[in-house]
Amino acid sequence: MKAHPSPAGKLATLTAAAAGLAAMAVTSLFLGGKVTGPIEILDVLTGNPDPYLEAVIDARLTRTVMGALVGSALAVAGVIIQGITRNPLGDPGLLGISLGASAATVTAAAVTGTAVGAGSVWIALIGALATVIVVYIVGGRSASGSVVTLLLTGAVVSAVLSAYIQTMTLTRPEVFDSFRFWVIGALNGRSLEVALSVSPALALGFIAAFALAPSLNNLALGEDVATSLGTPVALVRALGILAAALLAAAATAAVGPIAFVGLAVPHLTRSLVGIDHRWQIPVAALVGAALLIAADILGRLIARPEEIMVGIVTALIGAPFLLLAVRKGWAAR
What residues form the membrane-spanning segments (predicted)? Predict the structure, then answer.
């Protein structure tokens, strides 16, 4: 049996994750379709840049900020969902969050003709949260009210939303043309205004996640044990789902669906710091941010002078990683 990391080891892991995130953020400013040197970046920071170079650095800075926010949000949401469901294959998609945002975006594209923009972020966010509420109300009021019922309800709602999205995109070409740029999942083309639009939801989600960490530890021992320890299981589950929904919905609304981050990062985090959610959540936030920025950098480099959208990169590298995690036993609780 693998020994649990010591507090010193966990602190070292947290520090290393923070250093890794800082390194990825700095690297993101230098690399792209063209490598930018330190002197050129210094010119931008000191206010004496070439206009084209300034635009390039501003775009890289914006996508780095978006990558950090989205990566950390999806990773923490994954930790919460896996903690609540006690399912190592759990991710925010089980509750229909991505499809809820996608359905709302399709509807907005049909009405307004565009699926991208600061205004559409709120529409996607509302769609995602509304889907989670429906799933929770329907699943929670069933005869059993169990986590399994909740997940099955999420699967049913997701199937309905998927059918709606396919119908709209196949029968309305103008909707497909607008929606296809959003649904891939990309950090480019977004503005800091989008990040500001979703920041309240992200802030609430992160605060709730950290506050729920001790209760999630109790829940990991089983519902009966958690109840005997004084944990209000139903309330913790509801608040945890709400926190995960806020984080994942905001991330999806901002940049589109990003696969595997919420599923893979919790496995990696548990292998590093163990099952204590008080350590899992901060480490997952840092690792998720660093990995998504790294995936974005990779997408810029391997297809120069064009780029591969980060949603495609995470899907390509996430699937083999998940298979490795299962084979190595990282998914074990």
Answer: 61-81, 93-115, 121-139, 146-165, 194-213, 234-259, 279-299, 308-326
Q: Where are the domains of the chain?
A: 92-184+199-254
What is the gyration radius of the CA atoms in the chain, in angstroms? 20
Whether 296 and 232 have beta carbons less than 8 Å apart is answered as no
Share of the chain above pLDDT 70, in %: 83
Structure letter (DSSP) for residue 304: T
Q: Which of 29-43, 82-96, 120-134 has the lowest mean pLDDT?
A: 29-43
Q: For domain 92-184+199-254, which CATH number applies: 1.10.10.10, 1.10.3210.10, 1.10.357.10, 1.10.3470.10?
A: 1.10.3470.10
pLDDT at 54 exceeding the cut of 60: yes
What's the distance, CA 255 to chain centroid?
A: 10
Residues 72, 203: Cα–Cα separation, whole Å: 12
For residue 305, say if its preceding peptide bond is cis, omega within 30 degrees of 0.
yes
pTM of the model: 0.86
